[in-house]
Structure formats: structure tokens, C-alpha cells
Amino acid sequence: MTSEAGFPRSIGAPATRALVGAGYRELSQLAGVPAAELKKLHGMGPKALRLLQEALEQQGLSLGPA
Fold first, then answer.
1. Please, which pLDDT band fits residue 65 given cuts at 50, 70 and 90?
2. DSSP 8-state class, residue 28
């Protein structure tokens, strides 16, 4: 299930707000983005990063190197 912003609802509202605030609107836009870069966003925690990586993997994509 995805949120209105196009990210898995399971990542939580703070992480979704952080991604939207950084200009990301769809999960596929995160492919190749370094996890370390996303980790710097306020509201983005380890659980959200793991869930995003899992969701990307289901589409044959992945985050960039940590």
C-alpha cells in the first residue's frame, strides 16, 4: 500500500514528509540515491530506510551505496 506521495505507508508520516520536502515524489526517484544522503533528512530513521530499500527491491531497484 502506498501513500498519496507514492511511498510505502509503512515508512511513516515523518519520513514521507522528509522525502517530499527534499523533492522526492515517487519511490522510483530514490533508486541510486545514497542511503547516507537520505539518512541526513530530518524524520528519516533506520526503519524507514530499510522499508524503502525493501520496496525498491520489489521493483528490481535499490538505494545507492551507504
1. confident
2. G
Is residue 15 predicted with pLDDT exceeding 60?
Answer: yes
Please check whether residue 53 is in contact with residue 27, taking contact to mean a CB–CB distance below 8 angstroms: no
Q: Is 25 helix (H, G, I), strand (E, B) or coil?
A: coil
Q: Cell digits for 1? A: 500500500
CB atoms within 10 A of CB 21: 11
49 closest CA partner among 62, 25, 28: 62
Q: How many whole angstroms from its chain centre is CA 64?
A: 12
pLDDT of residue 31: 96
